[in-house]
Amino acid sequence: MEINNDRFNDEPFAVGECGWFQRQKLAWWFRLAIWIIKLGPIPRHVAFIMDGNRRYARAHNCSNVLEGHELGFKQLTKVLDWCDYVGIQEVTLYAFSIENFKRSESEVKGLMELAEIKFTKLLDLLQKSEESASHKVCIRFFGDLQLLPEKIRTLITQIEAITRNKGSTFLNICLAYTSSNELFRAVEGAKQKIQSDHHDKTSEYGCIVDECMDTYKCLPLDMVVRTSERRLSDFMLMRFREFTYLHFEENVLWPEFSLWHLLKSIIAFQISRFELIKMRANISSNKNQFYKFYELFKLASCD
Q1: Closest C-alpha to 269, from 222, 218, 220, 202
Q2: Would you place residue 206 in the very low, low, confident or very high pLDDT band (cuts 50, 70, 90)?
Q3: What confidence tens digit (pLDDT) does each residue in 134-173 have?
Q4: Which chain positions lie within coiled-coil regions (predicted)?
Q5: Which of 87, 214, 222, 268 sits at 20 to 30 Å (Cα–Cα) from 104?
Q6: Angle of the 259-302 helix axis to the 28-37 helix axis, nearest 10
Q7: Is 73 helix (H, G, I), strand (E, B) or coil?
Q8: Under a CB-based contact definition with an 8 Å cutoff, are residues 98 and 144 in contact?
């Protein structure tokens, strides 16, 4: 299936002074809502599982599913800007799973063409803004990138080189990725390190494996947002922590994901964080009560 390249160039990646993408003008009530939410804890690292593009295309009688992916991409540029408004330091996107290669040949080809067009435009804009250093985001790509077409791999290498060590905000794009594949490649990498003696002799094997993972340098994962369904699809599983909050918008397709949905997820994150702090305080209090009871019991036993 051939796709219209001009259609995909209507709203390209645009790196703005804000450090993410082209700054949008928000209505005063949105700015007020963001100001209120920023009074509470803001997740530093948020991961998005962007699901529902194909269903959106079918529900809105689009000519093909690629139009749904195009609309999903346009919505992504808005979401990234909202994340910058809110103050999120790191965003990880589940852009293309290894399992997605099982889709129809025409859809996979169309997605690869879309990625090539957008990354080419992004690279061009980054190169133009490099001297002025107007881009302040480090863009990283995770996944088994050897599975991608050579042109896309070349673009990825160039984008990462230009944005390396740029600012304190990060955009991680997962392509040809699953957590199980990441772990498999990390184990293989650790074995090679050990065999070549290029590792700290005092390090445990588990630590070496962790260092070989794509997501090793990521901030702790604070929140995962998934649209359309309630499942994790083998995504970032090695980076989950006890405080990682899972937010599912089951009735929202990715092209429909709005600023209100993002703010709703952050409010839910804040509530869960407060509940976690409260739970830890209760556990600590119960421990203190137990120790006091234990000391009294010992004194009584001595008598």
Answers
A1: 222
A2: confident
A3: 557 899 999 999 999 999 999 999 999 998 887 778 999 9
A4: none
A5: 214
A6: 10
A7: helix
A8: yes
